[in-house]
Amino acid sequence: MGPIHMNEVQCLGTEKTMWNCVFKNITSEECQHVEDAAVRCNTPYMDLENSIRLTGGRTRYEGRVEVLSTEANGTRSWGLICGGAWGTKEAMVVCRQLGLGYANHGLQVGVSTKLTAYTRL
């Protein structure tokens, strides 16, 4: 798994992208992968968005949320979102940004868990 790029994400649910939500930048000491944010959207993935993606799900429209971030040195890397305060509003923004309709679930998943084990509704 990659680094974690976002923490304490708070969305109203109407934002067009995750970058429009309030969040904190993070170091690995502040959040562990047992708190990774995930979503399940209601529409199949169309591969239209290139700055956010879902990985590790049973289908292409569910999984851990990864964002493409630009580091200070200009390199770009995929990283995860810490899901400590993750909920349906944040999941709605991810699904909207990906063109996947509305969110069925906002999830927080651990490293060794099945995706549906920790649903937060």
UniProtKB/TrEMBL annotation:
The record's section on Pfam families has:
SRCR
A Gene Ontology biological process annotation?
A: collagen fibril organization
Q: Which GO terms describe its cellular component?
A: extracellular space; membrane
S-S bonds = C11-C21
Please name the GO terms that the record assigns under molecular function. Answer: protein-lysine 6-oxidase activity
Q: Which UniProt keywords apply?
A: Disulfide bond
Looking up SUPFAM superfamilies in the UniProt record yields: SRCR-like
**Domain SRCR, which positions?**
1-42, 52-103
Task: Name it.
Answer: SRCR domain-containing protein
Q: What species is given as this protein's source?
A: Hucho hucho
Q: What is the lineage of its organism?
A: Eukaryota, Metazoa, Chordata, Craniata, Vertebrata
